[in-house]
């Protein structure tokens, strides 16, 4: 798996004025995104920045095409203040999901609207094969836009983990081959000439559900993510939790059966060997049903094929205790389950897990379900990928704000975000 930069390294500020300026631009963009249309005085009040600082930043953002003027607000006497909003045509980000057997690509404008989406199958998933496909797919997605958008602000790239773990093979049907110690961020960045954000697919999927799906109203939740394998995205106080090396949430490689089935990671008895799309397609292949794609899997489930029905029962038996364990560990508002499973199959799997084992989630005053379905489907990881550079552009980091606070007067920092 590719190398990842040390968490927090990019957020170190010191007294570098240019980085402080970059942080304050994100602050202003975030305020306008949340409140717009909004005037300079209102931005200043919510961002805790001086009026002059806001005026300069807003002028820069308008010149860069990221903000637009929307007219004047009529309130009281005097000249009404000019209102500003995020310019949906001012820029976009690309989200690229590199899966074991395909690449999905999305273009999302800075207002959060999906402008283009594509998916292409992969026969090989090594870097030499994948990198040219990424460039081609982004170019094709841009060429297919009805209204061209001039700025591509960055690219989010997501792929299955784990990242750089000794003793775990990185070759297998649910993983990518040839990426161990390959610097994906630098290589893709050089190829595209753009900022690149690299992330685990399950973590990105949690971001996608938080921004676009079932977790819009949740700040603390876990996403059980079905790609070809099985992953876990963890959101704490509205922020993705990545761990020290980007490997938090490798739920698929929790051991659930001593000396059990061989997993693609090299261990025996991993959860992924029982409760994953790959585990299901292996069972179907053993029954003579090969090359099963999403539509075929939907048909087999609709027909109540005995192999699919047996997999649902087995997977539910292994998953239900893990759901309770996640509840005991993280005390989330809910567990979201989603990804590339067809909706009907996902619903039956969820039902087969009932009743869930006792955990801290079984509260007397609980109104919401413990386990809810994701709403963004097969594109959830790509949606999250596209959101990653958008978050880098528009959302201030807490640790950045704290670093700026140590170096600047109070009125020149933001407490937003």
Summarize the structure.
The chain is α/β, with parallel strands linked by helices and 417 residues long. The protein folds into three domains: 9-89 and 393-412, Arc Repressor Mutant, subunit A (Orthogonal Bundle), CATH 1.10.10.10; 92-201 and 381-390, 2-Layer Sandwich (Nucleotidyltransferase, domain 5), CATH 3.30.420.40; 214-375, Nucleotidyltransferase, domain 5 (2-Layer Sandwich), CATH 3.30.420.40. It has helices at residues 17-35, 40-47, 51-63, 127-143, 184-192, 201-212, 277-286, 294-302, 306-330, 343-352, 380-394, 398-407, and strands at residues 38-39, 67-72, 82-86, 92-98, 102-109, 114-121, 152-159, 196-200, 221-226, 230-236, 239-240, 334-339, 371-373.
Tally the helices: what do you get?
12
CATH architectural designation of the largest domain: 2-Layer Sandwich
CATH superfamily (homologous) name of the largest domain: ATPase, nucleotide binding domain
Write down the overall mean pLDDT. Answer: 83
Strand content: 15-25%
Order of helices and strands: HEHHEEEEEHEHEHEEEHHHEHEHH
Work out the oligomeric state of the chains in this entry: single chain
Poorly predicted segments = 3-18, 166-171, 397-417
The CATH topology annotation of the largest domain reads as Nucleotidyltransferase, domain 5
- Helix/sheet category: alpha/beta
